[in-house]
Amino acid sequence: MSMLTMDQAVEEALFEEMERDSRVLTMGEGVVQAWARLRDNFGPKRVRNTPLSEGIIAGTAVGASAMGLRPVIDMLCAPFLLYAMEEIVNSAGKLRYLSGGQFSFPLVVIAGTGVAFSLGAQHSHNLEAWFAHAPGLKVVIPSSSAEAKGLLKAAIRDENPVLFFRDFLLGRTPGEVPEGEHLIPLGKAAVAREGQSATIVTYGRMVLTSLEAAATLAEQGLSVEVIDLRTIKPLDEETVLASVRKTGRLVVVHEASRSCGVGAEISATVAEKAFGALKAPILRLTGPDTPVPASPALEPFFAPAAPQIVQAVRQLVG
Amino acid sequence: MSMLTMDQAVEEALFEEMERDSRVLTMGEGVVQAWARLRDNFGPKRVRNTPLSEGIIAGTAVGASAMGLRPVIDMLCAPFLLYAMEEIVNSAGKLRYLSGGQFSFPLVVIAGTGVAFSLGAQHSHNLEAWFAHAPGLKVVIPSSSAEAKGLLKAAIRDENPVLFFRDFLLGRTPGEVPEGEHLIPLGKAAVAREGQSATIVTYGRMVLTSLEAAATLAEQGLSVEVIDLRTIKPLDEETVLASVRKTGRLVVVHEASRSCGVGAEISATVAEKAFGALKAPILRLTGPDTPVPASPALEPFFAPAAPQIVQAVRQLVG
Amino acid sequence: MSLSLPELLRRMLLIRTIEERLRALVRESKAPVTSPTTGQEAAALGVIDALSQDDLLLTNHRSMSHLLSRGADPRRLLAEIYGKRTGYCQGKSGFRHISIRELGVMLTSTVVGAELSMAPGVALALAMQDSSAIVACFFGDGASCEGVFHESLNLASLWDLPILFVCENNQWQWNVSRKEAQAAARISEFAAPHGIKSQTVDGMDLEAVREAAQAAVAYVRKERRPFLLESVTYRLRGHNSIDPQSYVGPEELAAQWARDPLHLLSQRLAQAGVVSDEARAQLQREVDAEVDRAFAFAQESPFPGPEELLADVYA
Amino acid sequence: MSLSLPELLRRMLLIRTIEERLRALVRESKAPVTSPTTGQEAAALGVIDALSQDDLLLTNHRSMSHLLSRGADPRRLLAEIYGKRTGYCQGKSGFRHISIRELGVMLTSTVVGAELSMAPGVALALAMQDSSAIVACFFGDGASCEGVFHESLNLASLWDLPILFVCENNQWQWNVSRKEAQAAARISEFAAPHGIKSQTVDGMDLEAVREAAQAAVAYVRKERRPFLLESVTYRLRGHNSIDPQSYVGPEELAAQWARDPLHLLSQRLAQAGVVSDEARAQLQREVDAEVDRAFAFAQESPFPGPEELLADVYA
Ligand SMILES: Cc1ncc(C[n+]2csc(CCOP(=O)(O)OP(=O)(O)O)c2C)c(N)n1
Ligand SMILES: Cc1ncc(C[n+]2csc(CCOP(=O)(O)OP(=O)(O)O)c2C)c(N)n1
Ligand SMILES: [Mg+2]
Ligand SMILES: [Mg+2]
Known about the structure:
The complex is a heterotetramer, with two copies of chain A and two copies of chain C. By secondary structure, chain A is of the alpha/beta class. Chain A has helices spanning about 5-20, 30-35, 35-40, 55-65, 85-90, 95-100, 130-135, 145-155, 205-220, 235-245, 260-275, 305-315; strands at about 1-5, 25-30, 45-50, 70-75, 110-115, 140, 160-165, 175, 190-195, 200, 225-230, 230-235, 250-255, 285. Chain A contains twelve helices and 14 strands. Chain C has a six-stranded parallel beta sheet with strand order 2-1-3-4-8-7, sandwiched between helices. Chain C has a two-stranded antiparallel sheet with strand order 5-6. The model of chain C has no long low-confidence stretch (mean pLDDT about 100). The chains are: A alpha/beta, C alpha/beta. Chains in contact: A-B, A-C, A-D, B-C, B-D, C-D. At the A-B interface, helix 5, helix 7 and helix 11 of A face helix 5, helix 7 and helix 11 of B. One thiamine diphosphate sits at the interface of chains D and A. One thiamine diphosphate (TPP) sits at the interface of chains D and A.
């Protein structure tokens, strides 16, 4: 075990995979500075600064991955992905299918997510739901440095295009990370905390907020289960449904806006497949359907906070 | 009343609004040919063919609308919007908010949607859920020529950016359209058919498929209510909730892929706000989480069909 | 490939014959809609003839000339167009995005500009694998209106990528004339500011295209640097096989048909005594027979089964 | 605006003083992070001085010089940077996307390239309203790597839009050197293929920039055609106010500081006897006092209330 921030864990995962597999290369604006250790060890051919051109960065990853390379591109902030949607969604997500399986696209797109540092809506915009809605892509969002390492290593080894969202705040938060070969399979959620009377399904930084709420509820004598999805797509329905069948109550928590978000998908899945087990309405605590404000006075109100989660759970069991 | 295809109804709405308001102009690849009547009547300044550059088409609409013009841009097919996400989502959707309300963006983006004509996944991709998830935008999808006219006229008069999705098949289907001033307010759903034992919530072309299913069910003695959302965002929760409170059963139907689609949002909203009224699980019938195949042998299996809807409703009431 | 002039003529006849047959059949709804390359055969064939077998191609929605020039089997090609299981993409693609990996035809997209966004990655892989192969990226004049065209040129120049950018400037972007869409006089002029060499050639003259392409290919292969070749050609048919071209002036169209690359080549080979009119008539008969067989194969081939809807989404 | 040389010097002092103050305060966490325009004051001021009041501007994340040159109130500007209700955007923006409609500063986006995508629409509106005003679109060398730069140039040329494209080529794109990101020698060279006139000027020399800008503005206003002006300047500070610039060579940085536009102008005005050293010291004292008041206003201003989170999403 070593203590690493999520950003350090990402670099460690990249380092190990680049050492393991010479086909892995990284590209992006400033990756040479961000991942100096990679540049020093693997050289300029495999760690490439790019022009400020998100479209061609993603398109290049698509072309390179079809040829057998395993590119990892850093798009910095999720909203910058909007210049690369054509390449990620129309090309990487569809050309395997449209070609009758002639090509595969083992690439990873890293993008920063989360409401932080008064960045405002053009840097802070949680977009994971979009990539879950589009076909042919996988989506992961770690909630800790250890998850970041394990999920990124698994994403790099996956044969499909994977969106890897890195939370800005967690990026600077230290946490224990297993040394060496630490892999977390895509598509498997984790039970972050076991409980009996209600289930909280969440992911990314909201896992910490939810665990905080669960601790408070425990003091109040309420045992709550917290599920950390880890992978948004493919979704680990089994784990979610099993928990809800046990507790009968569900609160979904995420920072992204509400309409057509991941919370809607979780809620709808449960309302269809575990309806009989439900003892109460399914609640969603999410970011509002607004852009993210930059003012430090407004920013803290965007994401759900622990007290709201506590209140929501109490409302369900009340 | 006159019989018009949806495409003709769109042109009629544009004609009337351009006549009414000299600030309205249309831009896009081939609009001069697509809307020859507009070009003939309103001239080259207000009906502009553009370069094959979706990004700048959308960006130009953003800039022009902030200046008080009311641009309507035709992006042809929804997947081509992927070149314009930055302009639509980061600029049109966020710059009013980030500027503290200094600007508004009264623009309309028209895009073709739906699985049709063996076009394949790069022309056929239903993306309405994305724009519902992003802040600051409105989304409408008509299910008939009359709705197309009424919703487009209302969208052009709206002070906000509106995505207007035009179904390819309905585009060529004739239907009765009221002459002149026919407006359908954004944010209001329609009860396309009244019923007691179950509610089908749907939109766009799937309204026709759902009504077909409802007719079959009626013959079988089952009265089903069909709700035509018309506007995807802002969502008319009241109408949906009122219907489910009456029937106690809900099937959501759309052609778009399942994960994080509009159906998930409807289901989650009901599972939270009308849970007490639910007598059965909420079912979603949607397109699969796959790209759209071009083969005429596969294309018909993508969208939900009437028999599946019939079966789903019977399962709920069974 | 360096094919003989008679063989080059045969391929042009094959392309023309298949596309005109498709246009005839679509009117009787006996064929799917396609996007004819009629008029652009020389621009495609001249470049592809200058490539070697291990070079890679990217094309787009208007690919018939590229695919057949490269040696695609007309039977599997038509089967794909008909959406049949025996097609190169198992029927999933239809005509719009046909890629044929076994022939080095990579990653075809029908989204205009996508060929340009993917080409650098394909070339980067060749560079990192120390291959001597190069990438030929075929795109239209309309694609050069998409910003990603410039991003692609910049990256190719910056990273020394072996890409032959081939712009088939056919003067049309769907029903919009290039002049209405682009201020630039020549598309090749966009290369220089990015530090890329370029040339503009008469795309109706097969031998001129081939000569220019041979020089360009040699440059890209030797220098491992990009090059932009613009072929000035013309879309003699509509945007697709059911487009009546009502927006094209009849005089303009007539003038362009007078430049028909197939006619030009036939004439020249006849005059040079390389392929006599009789020999050409014989070639045409052989081609007709081959095309008959190909259409029969495509029409009689089985469709994919419904289970295919869910196949090949993920690897 | 055609300000007097002493007033131009005063504005440069004001910009420099505010930004250096912000850099000092951010270290004590008494100010938010910002992106200094230090080194680029002349490139901004020289152009904005050549504009008239009814002309419109688009800027980006590095806007301090543009906003203060245009006459923004330092108090409301700093209040916005601090996220206060009294800021130009009611605190919603922070420093990254400050637009000031009352000064004609439109639609500021922090997404690189967005200024270029929105400028044609602003200019189109002016054209359709038969206004004599023009649009000045300020962007960085990095923005010229985004494809939309070329889409913007093409449309502006094609539609005769009155846009003065102003590239502040400061040699850096965050921590990436321009040479590592762009093959082009000069960004102004991208104009010609689109049929647009251009000029490259020394962005450190206020009078040179102003002279070039006056000619460019006159051309755009009279011809109703776009023009591309490239100012060769340098980002003397980090990408943002906490960036140590560790990736910049010390000799290079020293050499560039020797070109400091504020120093150059002060020197020139002193030598010409227009603004003596004493007069400049006096100007500096006035500026310091103004800046003190502005920071006090910003720091003491109220924050927006929580209800503001949901305000101004829709019109
Ligand atoms: C991004 C995008 N926009 C629009 C279309 C619709 N479309 C298909 S082909 C075409 C014209 C393309 O012109 P060009 O690039 O010159 O190729 P050509 O058809 O002339 O071969 C258009 C507008 C598309 N497929 N992709
Ligand atoms: C589309 C996009 N990509 C990346 C960023 C992150 N970013 C902010 S400023 C910047 C550098 C911009 O360089 P340039 O355009 O030269 O402007 P400068 O900062 O030098 O003034 C980068 C990469 C962004 N804001 N938007
Ligand atoms: Mg063309
Ligand atoms: Mg710069």
